[in-house]
Amino acid sequence: xxxxxxxxxxxxxxxxxxxxxxxxxxxxxxxxxxxxxxxxxxxxxxxxxxxxxxxxxxxxxxxxxxxxxxxxxxxxxxxxxxxxxxxxxxxxxxxxxxxxxxxxxxxxxxxxxxxxxxxxxxxxxxxxxxxxxxxxxxxxxxxxxxxxxxxxxxxxxxxxxxxxxxxxxxxxxxxxxxxxxxxxxxxxxxxxxxxxxxxxxxxxxxxxxxxxxxxxxxxxxxxxxxxxxxxxxx
Length: 234
Fold this sequence. Notes:
Elements: H1 8-16, H2 32-36, H3 45-55, H4 67-76, E1 80-81, E2 89-93, E3 98-107, E4 113-120, E5 130-136, E6 140-144, H5 165-168, H6 184-193, H7 203-215, H8 227-233
Antiparallel strand pairs: 1-6, 2-3, 2-6, 3-4, 4-5
């Protein structure tokens, strides 16, 4: 393995940097992750997750694009279990067998997990063609545990009802018309409020958010998406 071994935090940061990556062309299964593995255009949730692990030096089980086999490789290595942890590889059963995979970003106090996943979409499907963040509560089969480098900072778990700062950090401080923000989470909000989903949180988006807050009686009416508005938007 050529890459130096990363910590959990470093690996999650690298996976977060993939958010918003899509297939090209749309619905083709063609993207950079399968290309990295010298594979054809194919369902790519495992290719994406393994790409992250390989880049961060922690793909210490045999690579496989077939999710049941990748899960089996973790089991054979003795690193499989039912405990969610930040940095764990999470496997899902959507069709009667293991059929999707991602990485745990955080574990919430209500038992749900925040995940980073390739080849998904806003409803949470397993072939949506985009790298996205989800909150998952069901269909989880188990977890594989990569062996990360030591010395990471502790990952603080959110309190009940709290949305962690990293979950909405790109959506704050938008009341200033000269303050522009970008990212896939911005597009999600723009679709919710009927703004042009261009990924840029400028004054027009802030105005739409403010109107949405007034219409739904979500205070403060500040045009910003902080934890209260984020919870109200789901």
